[in-house]
Amino acid sequence: MRVLAVDPGLTRCGVGVVDGVPGRRLTLVDVGVIRTPSGDPTPKRLVAVEDEMRQWFARHRPEAVAIERVFADTNVSTVMGTAQVTGIVMIIAERLGLPVTLHTPTEVKAAVSGSGRAGKAQVTAMVTHLLGLEHAPKPADAADALALAICHVWRGGTQNRFAEAAAALGSPPSGIPSRAPRHGATGRPVPNRANPGAFPR
After folding, report:
1. Residue 3 phi, psi dihedral angles, 5° rounding
2. In terms of pTM, does the model score above 0.70?
3. Which of 51, 149, 171, 184 would suit a FRET pair with 36, their CA atoms being 20 to 30 Å apart?
4. What positions does UniProt annotate as the active site of this protein (predicted)?
5. Which residue, 132, 133, 100, 135, is CA-closest to 6?
6. Integer Cα distance of 43 and 137 in angstroms
7. Contact call for residues 16 and 31 (beta carbons, < 8 A)
8. What element of type H or E holds 140?
């Protein structure tokens, strides 16, 4: 599976492409950072990000897309830019019919290093080791994108297989019926658990 992962940002947007399947060695395909001048108007910066991002998709033809989930913090302008770039990536992926998955920073750290509280240096070191790189990827945005791609291969790949299996069986991915059965195995009405005295009509 080829994953294109994005650590979204308007000033610096990390992009990493990794090939791999769970349980096997991962391979680095490409990594880089899309930059836009902070002094340019936001619309112009967004167009620049979109143009470069489309080149990444066309050049590497990923099978799945992973994006770091946006979290609000005290810097509203940073969150806005991050969310806007996330939207651009989602639109490109959707138009190409590619599945998109959002992963939290904690999920990524836990998948790569074994600890959701790992620092950036530890995550970068693990990315370097897991991909068999001679040098650590820089800047941090690039390393974060690769960590995200690794996380998706190991976690998202498994989730996708579960979803495909569930779809083949004609049931929701969660395995939970869309509607609770009206009767039990004996054919008798099943009590309402929220109100034991009530039965479905």
Report:
1. -115, 130
2. yes
3. 149
4. 7, 68, 141
5. 100
6. 29
7. yes
8. helix 140-151
Q: Is 73 a catalytic residue?
A: no
As a whole number, the mean pLDDT across the chain is: 83
Q: For 2-168, CATH number?
A: 3.30.420.10
Spacing of C-alpha 127 from chain mean position: 16
**Residue 134 annotated as catalytic:** no
pLDDT of residue 155: 85
**What digits encode the pLDDT tens for the residues 73-97?**
657 778 899 999 999 999 999 999 9
**Rounded to whole angstroms, how far apart are CA atoms 33 and 25?**
24
Query: Is there a binding annotation on residue 68?
Result: yes
User: How many whole angstroms separate alpha carbon 188 and alpha carbon 96?
Assistant: 49
Would you kindly state where each structural domain of the chain is located, as residue ranges?
A: 2-168
Q: Is the peptide bond before 191 cis (omega within 30 degrees of 0)?
A: no
d(CA 63, CA 52): 18
22, 153 contact by CB (below 8 A) = yes
10 closest CA partner among 123, 91, 87, 105: 87
Length of the chain: 201
7 a catalytic residue:
yes
Sequence-distant (6+) residues with CB within 8 A of 117 are 106, 109
Catalytic residue among 19, 68, 107, 144: 68
